[in-house]
Amino acid sequence: MPNRAHRRAAARANPSQKQTHKLPTQRCLLWLPASGGYLLRVDPIAHTFTTVEQPAEAWHLDEDEAEAVCLVFRDLTGLPATVRPYFASSQG
Asked: How many CB atoms lie within 10 A of CB 49?
């Protein structure tokens, strides 16, 4: 029976057999309650933004990116924004 040192040495020798338990990246969108829609695009130079009503048409970001964009959007516009998870519908 291999001890912990043997298991660690085997894992280092065979990194392809090492199992990871990472969760898949969560896709998110930004909800803008003041406009009643989801963020589609931002133009920081012109200080404009576009929203859409349907989540499927909105700007999809990874969770970390969405948090960063949300903070920058709040700083630029002063408007409230929240990050919401996006679950793609399998219905066509």
From this structure: 21
Amino acid at residue number 75: D
SS3 of 48, please? strand
Q: Model confidence at 47, in pLDDT bands (50, 70, 90)?
A: confident
Cα–chain center distance at 22: 15
Q: How far apart are CA 20 and CA 12, in angstroms?
A: 14
Provide the whole-model pTM. 0.69
Let me know: does 60 contact 42? Beta carbons within 8 Å. no
Question: Token pair of 61, please?
Answer: 């970001």
Residue pLDDT, tens place only, 64-82: 999 999 999 998 889 999 9
Residue that has been written with the tokens 């709040």 in this structure: 74
